[in-house]
């Protein structure tokens, strides 16, 4: 049944007519904010320039990421999930966005109930909305090979490099983790006062990371609690980063610093992260919120009389 529906959806995608008024929903996960558009119900295509303009917090709607809901390519998925940073770059994963994705499709009846199987650029996520409204995401397994980020280095348990920021050289040590998207995790003694914006921006531009990287600054409070701030690739420091929280906890567990279930406190609130070790997926649980609905007015297409 689902596959018949998805075959029809994929067929419709081939017939894509660009709508001139495109409905959107503004959502957030712990203050990491999103514009969500449903391309199954409202076929449209957006250029990276249009995405950048929509992401502008003064001239557009404003968001950290734009999330697109579309018909899946895989027969074992209910939906396709595409993610674009505010700078217009398309990326592989967004954890806070996945929780909002689940809320969106369930609230609108695009699917009757959990579990929801969601195809991304490089993995299959499973989303469950709990009775308390929180959403649990099976984020897939972390990867540590340099090629999985990518990271231009030989594989090690941790990496060291020198970064120039704020006019001086900083020798940094970081863990490299892929959650489908790349993360460099630094352990710091004082998260509140860490140079997240200056150092995060510089690390993100290092040639070590040919496709950029999300930079996490993790303070270990005890074996079950961390404080985390993330300078995100393509968005800057955000209120929260779901994949960043997963990457940080995985790095801490792998380094023997954390237990298997950790509460991560980000600027915008808390996420529960669980990882049972290599060969297991990372489970992330947290909230999702809808803020408002609106319409994007797209430029009329030449020759269509729209
Ligand atoms: N900036 C990330 C994508 C969004 C991740 C974040 N918002 C999350 O909740 O995981 C990247 O370029 O890989």
From TrEMBL:
<keyword id="KW-0028">Amino-acid biosynthesis</keyword>
<feature type="site" description="Important for dimerization">
    <location>
        <position position="292"/>
    </location>
</feature>
<dbReference type="GO" id="GO:0005829">
    <property type="term" value="C:cytosol"/>
</dbReference>
<dbReference type="InterPro" id="IPR001653">
    <property type="entry name" value="DAP_epimerase_DapF"/>
</dbReference>
<feature type="active site" description="Proton acceptor">
    <location>
        <position position="241"/>
    </location>
</feature>
<comment type="pathway">
    <text>Amino-acid biosynthesis; L-lysine biosynthesis via DAP pathway; DL-2,6-diaminopimelate from LL-2,6-diaminopimelate: step 1/1.</text>
</comment>
<protein>
    <recommendedName>
        <fullName>Diaminopimelate epimerase</fullName>
        <ecNumber>5.1.1.7</ecNumber>
    </recommendedName>
</protein>
<feature type="binding site">
    <location>
        <begin position="95"/>
        <end position="96"/>
    </location>
    <ligand>
        <name>substrate</name>
    </ligand>
</feature>
<feature type="binding site">
    <location>
        <position position="85"/>
    </location>
    <ligand>
        <name>substrate</name>
    </ligand>
</feature>
<dbReference type="GO" id="GO:0009089">
    <property type="term" value="P:lysine biosynthetic process via diaminopimelate"/>
</dbReference>
<dbReference type="Pfam" id="PF01678">
    <property type="entry name" value="DAP_epimerase"/>
</dbReference>
<dbReference type="GO" id="GO:0008837">
    <property type="term" value="F:diaminopimelate epimerase activity"/>
</dbReference>
<feature type="site" description="Could be important to modulate the pK values of the two catalytic cysteine residues">
    <location>
        <position position="232"/>
    </location>
</feature>
<feature type="binding site">
    <location>
        <position position="32"/>
    </location>
    <ligand>
        <name>substrate</name>
    </ligand>
</feature>
<keyword id="KW-0457">Lysine biosynthesis</keyword>
<comment type="function">
    <text>Catalyzes the stereoinversion of LL-2,6-diaminopimelate (L,L-DAP) to meso-diaminopimelate (meso-DAP), a precursor of L-lysine and an essential component of the bacterial peptidoglycan.</text>
</comment>
<feature type="binding site">
    <location>
        <position position="181"/>
    </location>
    <ligand>
        <name>substrate</name>
    </ligand>
</feature>
<feature type="site" description="Could be important to modulate the pK values of the two catalytic cysteine residues">
    <location>
        <position position="183"/>
    </location>
</feature>
<keyword id="KW-0963">Cytoplasm</keyword>
<comment type="subunit">
    <text>Homodimer.</text>
</comment>
<feature type="binding site">
    <location>
        <begin position="242"/>
        <end position="243"/>
    </location>
    <ligand>
        <name>substrate</name>
    </ligand>
</feature>
<feature type="active site" description="Proton donor">
    <location>
        <position position="94"/>
    </location>
</feature>
<comment type="similarity">
    <text>Belongs to the diaminopimelate epimerase family.</text>
</comment>
<dbReference type="InterPro" id="IPR018510">
    <property type="entry name" value="DAP_epimerase_AS"/>
</dbReference>
<feature type="binding site">
    <location>
        <begin position="232"/>
        <end position="233"/>
    </location>
    <ligand>
        <name>substrate</name>
    </ligand>
</feature>
<feature type="binding site">
    <location>
        <position position="65"/>
    </location>
    <ligand>
        <name>substrate</name>
    </ligand>
</feature>
<feature type="active site">
    <location>
        <position position="94"/>
    </location>
</feature>
<feature type="binding site">
    <location>
        <position position="214"/>
    </location>
    <ligand>
        <name>substrate</name>
    </ligand>
</feature>
<keyword id="KW-0413">Isomerase</keyword>
<feature type="region of interest" description="Disordered">
    <location>
        <begin position="1"/>
        <end position="23"/>
    </location>
</feature>
